[in-house]
Every structure is written in structure tokens, then in C-alpha cells.
Write a structure and sequence with these properties.
Elements (H helix, E strand, L loop, with lengths): L8 H20 L12 H84 L20 H23 L4 H11 L2 H44 L24 H13 L13
Amino acid sequence: MNELIKIKQLPVLEEQFKKLGEEIDIELENVNNLIVNDETYKGVKKIRANFNKQAEEYATQFKKAEKSILEPWEQVKKTYKENVVLKYSAADQTLKNKINSIENELKEAKRKELKAFFEKCKEENNIDFVEFSDIGLNINMSTSLKKLKEQIIAFVDKINNDLQTISNLEYKIEIMVEYKRTLDINKSILKAKERIEEIQKEKERIEEIQKEKEIYEDVQKLKYQIDKKETPTLDLKENEETKEIVLKINTTESKEIFLFNFLKEYDYNFKEEKQWWE
């Protein structure tokens, strides 16, 4: 490739700066030998101010030179981009599109062949709840059809093994529902177990509520029956001596609750005694 850019001005400037540096060295060679005291420091200050002034003048000249070089260079860079970079970029994009087009056609043909192979494997193994996308194949130009078909066979074999395991488990229907959704046997077993436990807890909760409801209804029924009868009046005597009586009553749980409430209502002092074997 021919050399496109030849720079002549910059080396010239570099030589000028080196020559200028030699002159400055001569001018500054006595700086380190200057003696500064209360009699000479004002003169040294003037020398320093003069050096700073010269440095500022050179800086101003350098910026002008830099600008004069960069302005045309920006135009050169623009021309280079339009005539070289953009043309190569456009050619690269055209070739890329052509390559992608043919590769997409080849990959689509490969995908169709693999999908047909997968459907055949499903039918042979009597599996109807998985889709081709469930395998997660990475169909590209570098992986061979043989390799991809091996991945499909491994996927179907795994499904078969999982189904065999599930068929021997308790709650296999519940597990199968989850497995069809996740294709993960461990997660499916755990999720099914959790769901069954939740159902059992809910069933027990409903049964407890129903039991409490029945007890309440029985108590209300008994109360209604007693309220319909005349409640005997008590003939209380002053300073009457209390005595302890022991009753043994065979009754139901709901009647027992009602009896306790009745005794409390009429201010009877009582206690319930359990037998040692109860």
C-alpha cells in the first residue's frame, strides 16, 4: 500500500523548537548560580518576570502554530472519512447482509429438519406435552446436525426417565401437573408436596370451623328448649349454710358446655375434676 500521508512541516517545527531550546539554555545557564539576598532579590524578581513573559509569548506562538496545522487537518480527516472509511464501511455492510441472508436460509433449513426429527422422537415415545422450543437448541453454522440431533435425543430420554420416576411416586397426578409446566422433576415433586399440604391444612381448618358451628348450633338449640320451659325459682334463705354435692353426669360435649354456662350464670361455685386416667 502506498504511503498516503507525508508530513513535512512538523519536522521543521521540531528542529526550530530544538534550536530555540539551545538558545534558552544559554540564557538560563546562570540561573542556578544567582545569589539572592536582601540587596539582589529585587533584580532576581525582574529576571524571573522577564522569563515568564518570554514563556507566555512562546506559548501564544505555539497555539497559533497548532491551530494553523489542525484546521486544515480536520478538513483532511473529513475528506478521508468520506472517501475511504465510509466506502469500506458500506461495502462491509453489503457483504454482511449477503452473508447473513444465506446463513439465515441455511439455519432455517437446519431448524426445519431438526423440528421434524424432534416430532418423530415425540411420537415414538408417546410424549405430547413438550415443544421444540423447550429444548433450547442453539442452531448456528458451526454446530453440526448430528450434534444437534444428539441433544434432541438426550432431551427426550430425560423426559422418559422423569415420567418413569413420577409413575412410581405417591401423588403422581399432582406431580405430573407441575412437571408439564416446568419439566423439572425435583421442583415438581416439591411443589406438589407443598400444594397437598396446603390443601390438607385448609381441609382441617374447614372441618374445625364446621365442628365449632355444629357445637354452637347444638348449644343454641338446647338453650331454646330450656327457655321454652319454666325456669324454677330459687327460695333463698338468709345465712343458709352451703354444702358440697357431687354429681356424675353422662352427657355430650355441647351439653357439657351449656351446663357449665348455666352454672356460671346462676353463680354456682363448681370445679371440673378429671380422673387420673383421662
